[in-house]
Give the backbone structure.
Amino acid sequence: MSQRPRRTRSSLVVPAALCALVALGGTPALSVGADGPEASAEVARLYEEASKASQHYEEGRRAAELQKAEAQRIEGLLAEERRESAVLHDDLGRIARAQYRNGGDIPVAAQMLLSDDPEELMHGQRAAWQADLALNNAVAKSQRAEKKLEEGQRKATAAWLSLKKRNDELAVLKKSIASRLQAAQWTLQGQADSSVAAGQCRGAVRLDQPAFASTRAWMPPVERYELSAGFDSAGARWAHRHTGQDFAVDIGTPVRSAGDGRVVSVTCGGAFGIQIVVRHAGGYYTQYAHLSSVAVDQGEQVKAGQWIGQSGTTGNSTGPHLHFEVRLTPYLGSGVDPVAWFAQRGVSL
């Protein structure tokens, strides 16, 4: 059983997993097998495609939501404009009916001859004309505003529907990539399991990692993750207390060096399956275990953030994850708490 994750870093859809740690046993040296780099490279490529597809999908979804809100806002303005226009038309009708009742169909000259006070009649007539003119202008202005709003609503709705259609297409593409990625992941894991069982692991598979530039001296060994089993935790799955920090990630997730250093061992077999150990300045060592592939050779210099392998579930593992340790020596049993160690170096897990 996995422990409750303590903190999340934009996790992918992955199950929490634990290490089943026992004595390491033998660790055969790596050799290049016949499986080739195709699965490793395909998983890495599909991870990048999935990441970009997800990013575009989310951008499209947010844009569609904003555009839909804009269309609804314009629809509200249009409804209000129509209500005001109806009131103006009602006012215009009332004025017309009042003029009719007060002799609106009699010429003004005749009304003046029949009136007891022609000057007052003219004053009232001018006021009526001005009111009519103002009302007619207001009606015309309302009609222009309504027409403009109708055009704006048409464009906003069309833009929303276009974005929605594009996002539906992106969702299908995203699902297709996820399906291909899953198939490639298990092909990769199958190759890794076969290599470990044979005691002859494949050599370094050079991955075309994206351009990476950082001034940070230290960073987590994976970019997106959930923390699962922590350092020194106890459980029925382990013969002893847990010796590292588990990062719940899916098969084939790029694993990066936590800092600058030199690869002191790349080994295969035993409880940790395929694993890498890197020596850093200050005499510290970091271990990356249960991998599905490695991208570096023993003795190679690595930089902080450089991809050195891909996560998996080789060795004594109950599911895909990265088992990570910080050690005082290259060997099991000299570990320190990775969370506290990273915190001392300004990195929060």
